[in-house]
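Fold this sequence, please.
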Amino acid sequence: MAVIFQYEKIKDYILTGLEEGTWQAGDKIPSEAELVMSLNVSRMTVNRAVRELANSGLLVRIPGAGTFVATERKAAQLLEVRSISDQIKENNQVYKATVLKLAIVKAIDNVLEEFEDTTIKSLYHSIILHHADDIPVQLEDRFVNPAIDKTYLDIDFTKTTPNEHLMQIAPLAEVEHIIEAIMPTKRERKILQIDEGTPCLLLTRRTWSGGHVATYVRLKYPSKRFRFGTRFSYRGRKSVHRAAFS
């Protein structure tokens, strides 16, 4: 018989409250001290349950203020970590990649912060333009931790994507996604073949493997050529993720 740990029971209690509407998006949930008292469990158990739900995007912890139910946009797990080539092919389009840069570079401070490791001296850096039917649909600007993958610079990324390669080398343990609208630079507009004033969707992703940040990538999509869609449940069942090209 499977063992159900106490923290899983606490997670189930909170998830049930979310599903039944006890706590709505933006509501503050009971404090950890209140949950300890009402559920008769340890503070450590409650902390782990709340932390895992926060890491999954369902709760937001604000120091000094408490823990809140994420807004629907944050609660939805917007994306799977999938290869852009698969998404394009599933849309019955021809995939092609152009490698604009593949090199080892000095780890500058603003990028190094994303890796949470000040001992890193250099990083692998790749810039790749992904096409659907010869139309640019994604500009991928990626930094890779050399400690995770020693072979990165030797890979032909016209034949496989960085995503496909890294998924084989460094199995994912944790993923962070941030999506926002931006105005691309003049150089980026030229690469993506879009007009001035055309916004892009920016997906910033960090992935962890083996206890380390493995890769930090900024993916830019011309807004008129790409859209994201999702359907999800709080418990992770019946989730459907879509990426559509136009």
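Strands lie at 59-62, 66-69, 95-106, 122-132, 135-144, 174-182, 200-209, 212-222, 226-231, 240-245. Residues 73-78, 237-242 have pLDDT under 50 and may be disordered.
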